[in-house]
Amino acid sequence: MDWRDHIAVDPKVLVGKPVIKGTRIAVEFVVDRMAHGWTFDQILQEYDHLSREDLQACLSAISP
User: Fold this and answer.
1) Average pLDDT over residues 17-21
2) pLDDT at 63 over 90
3) Where are the domains of the chain?
4) Average pLDDT in the chain
């Protein structure tokens, strides 16, 4: 999986922060939820329009 298939950067959306494509949900927001102990399942329950691949892409986008 290529994270670029799921993450977009557009200066017109959230001042250019990386977001999950087709949403206004920032990568940093998702990663922050995970840092605070949220599981993939909890995030997907709250944001049911996201996919497991979207969440994996958020983590891949921040990894070196």
Assistant:
1) 97
2) no
3) 3-62
4) 95
Which string of b and e fits 20-43 if b means at least 16 CB within 10 Å? Answer: beeeebbbbbbeebbeeebebeeb
Q: What are phi and psi of 51, to 5 degrees?
A: -115, 165
Which residues on neighbouring strands pair with residue 12, listed in sequence order? none
> How many helices (H) and strands (E) would you count in the chain?
3, 2
Domain 3-62 has CATH 1.10.10.10: yes
| pLDDT tens digits, 32-61 | 999 999 999 999 999 999 999 999 999 999
Return the bridge partners of 7, or none. Answer: 20
Instruction: Please give the C-alpha separations between residue 21 and each of 6, 9, 18, 33, in angstroms, as whole numbers.
Output: 5, 9, 9, 18
Answer left, alpha or beta for residue 63, where phi above 0 means left and psi between -120 and 50 means alpha. Answer: beta
